[in-house]
Amino acid sequence: MDDDQQNGLVERRRSSGAEHEIVTEWAAEIAVFAARSGALALGLFDTSGTARHANDALRALFDVDDAASLSLERLAEPRLSALAAAADGLAYRGRLAVVGAEGVPREAPGEVWRRGDRLLVLALPGDEAARLEREFEQAREALKASQRDLRALEKEMSRFIGIVAHDLRSPLANILTAGSYLRETLTDIDEDSEVLLSFIPQQANYMLSLINDLLDVSQLESGTFVLEREIIEVEPFVETIVRPHRSMAETKGIRISLNVTADGCADADPKRLRQVLDNLISNAIKFSPHGSTITITVEREDSKLRFSVEDEGPGISEQEQARLFQYFSRTSARPTGNETSTGLGLAIARRVVEAHGGEIGVESAPGQGATFWFTLPCAE
Q1: Which residues contact 334 (CB under 8 A, 6 or more apart)?
Q2: Is the pLDDT of residue 169 over 70?
Q3: Rounded distance, CA 371 to CA 349, Å?
Q4: pLDDT digits (tens, 9 = 90+) for 239-262
């Protein structure tokens, strides 16, 4: 056997051993990297930069015909000295810059891993990297188109809900009028008929409340929601809102305490501010036990007014608090007087408060009641 044949045999045995080493010791690193690509340039080197094995794709990247001519010293980025000084594990991830045989630079995305005195180089061939970039760009454009379609669909659905809800108002008003007429004109009716006559306005008013909430949702989601702000004197305004709620609370043996320490005015839409307060107070009454107290507080915090409604109800867990201000969200607590709920009030309240430039939240724990609060800007 001449010297060339002997050297060839040694090189083949060395390459075969390196291939076995790559398969057995570097399988995880190769699998993770290859999962992102259909092609892979791969090579195993000593920390001196000498190649122990390189596949065709890596030799093409380095522009050499055989592994014996391949060296990591031709890497412009990262430098071999940095790789040799790296700790075991991922030594580099990014663009591999290779100085070609004719001095022409080549680049490819890749990784270099170190284990002991060996360096594993993984890279994407140029055509494969370009393919992945094209696919990524196509996927991004498709996602943008889907998002545009979804926004258009949501807007159309909100408009449709608004139309339907608006059209339902008139027949509901007729039902309420007819129910009221029957109650006033019918005489000598039995107990069962009286229950049914009471049921008509009760359910019609619930449906009307749901329709009004759906109309608000339609405006909020379609972008047609508009605030009509004015300067509101806080204390008398809140007192007028609390007054009718006191009557409702008394039927359940609940006391309402009002504590307004803030002097001044709010810059807000009075109709929408009433809507938010009505929702928070009615919810507190709904879930409060007989003989408890609801405390309503308005105080000044720097340039904001802080409104809070504190009850002595069952409290709310952290998991339920996280979704409390979403549409159609309900807690596991049950109303103490069998009251109904649309599941929309708090979600609408949140969007109304945020439209004013304020914040809304809740502080609660199971068995310790709940305090719902929100802020509004003061009128300077």
Answers
A1: 287
A2: yes
A3: 15
A4: 999 999 998 899 999 999 999 987
In 270-296, which positions are buried (b, 16+ CB within 10 angstroms) versus exposed (e)?
eebbbbbbbbbbbbbbbbbeeebebbb
Maximum distance among all alpha carbons in the chain? Answer: 125
**Token code pair at residue 86:** 């790296």
Q: Side chain identity at 380, as an amino acid letter?
A: E
**pLDDT tens digits, residue range 181-212?**
888 888 788 888 887 888 788 788 778 877 88
Residue with tokens 């001519």: 69
Taking all residues of the chain, what is their mean pLDDT, rounded to a whole number? 83
Q: d(Cα 73, Cα 97) in Å, to the nearest integer?
A: 11
* Residue 15 in this model has a pLDDT that exceeds 70: no
Q: Give the integer Cα–Cα distance in Å for 152 and 141.
A: 17
User: How far, in Å, CA of 212 to CA of 207, rounded?
Assistant: 9
Single-letter amino acid, residue 53? H
- Give me Rg for the CA atoms of the chain: 36
Give the pair of three-digit tokens for residue 73: 């010293």
Q: How many CB atoms lie within 10 A of CB 28?
A: 9
- Are the C-beta atoms of residues 185 and 153 closer than 8 Å to each other? no
Tens digits of residue pLDDT in 55-98: 888 888 888 888 788 899 989 899 999 999 999 999 999 989 88
Tokens of 103: 């001095």
Secondary-structure percent of the chain, ordered helix, strand, coil, rounded to 5: 50, 25, 25
Beta bridge partners of 373: 308, 361
Please give the full DSSP string across 256-294, using - where no structure is assigned: EEEEE---SEEEE-HHHHHHHHHHHHHHHHHHPPTT-EE
Alpha-carbon distance 235 to 260, whole Å?
Answer: 6
Nearest to 321 by CA among 332, 312, 310: 332
**Pairwise pLDDT comparison (171 vs 50), residue with the higher score:** 50
The 10 Å CB-count burial string (b at 16+, else e) for 132-145 is: beeeeeeeeeeeee
